[in-house]
Amino acid sequence: MIKYFNQLPIKQKLRAAAGGIALLYLLAYQFSIRNTIQAYRSYTNNRLAAATAEVAPTRIQEYRQQLRALEQSFQASGYEREALFEEVNTHCAEYGLKLSDFGAEHRQARSDIELITNPVEVSGNYLDITRLAYAIEQIRKSAHIASLHFQLKKNLRKRENYLATTLYLQNLQPITQ
User: Fold this and answer.
1) Which of 101, 119, 132 is closest to 171 using CA atoms?
2) CA distance 15 to 155
3) Which residue, among 95, 89, 153, 160, has the nearest Cα to 118 in the 3D structure?
4) What is the pLDDT of residues 137-168, one digit of tens each?
5) Is the pTM of this model over 0.85?
6) Could you tell me which residues are beta bridge partners of residue 161?
7) Pairing status of strand 113-123 against strand 160-174
8) What gap in Å lies between CA 123 and CA 163, rounded to an integer?
9) 155 has which bridge partners?
10) Residue 177: beta bridge partners?
């Protein structure tokens, strides 16, 4: 075989040497370098898991405190349909909006809470309607705005367009058993 190799031209010898070196690198990677890389990856994963395990008790305490605060705010935010109606009516009068309809509430029970949705129809200026939505959800925090549906309607008597909006107000209430 060596005799055959010596008879080859120099270009073929160089190609064979390059192929041999590539094969040597491939075998070295397959049997040693790959195992080293896998060991390093498992070491870093284990080190991260150990670091998070050390911090876990403090995180659990933080999550428990956050959960208590949420439960207290949830219990404190009682839902009363009449109070919500009064608030919407007051804001409509303040912003010059017309309260067209305060629809029937829809209730959906989910595990230990009940989701109450109230559709409210108002008409008026766009800016005033957005101020109403902001006041209900952000300032007074009496309900969450699930959706706003804007619709341009035409008043046939006055022959002019007006903006009618349906606000879907949602509240959560614990289910008492």
Assistant:
1) 119
2) 88
3) 89
4) 888 888 889 999 999 999 889 889 999 999 99
5) no
6) 154
7) antiparallel
8) 6
9) 160
10) none
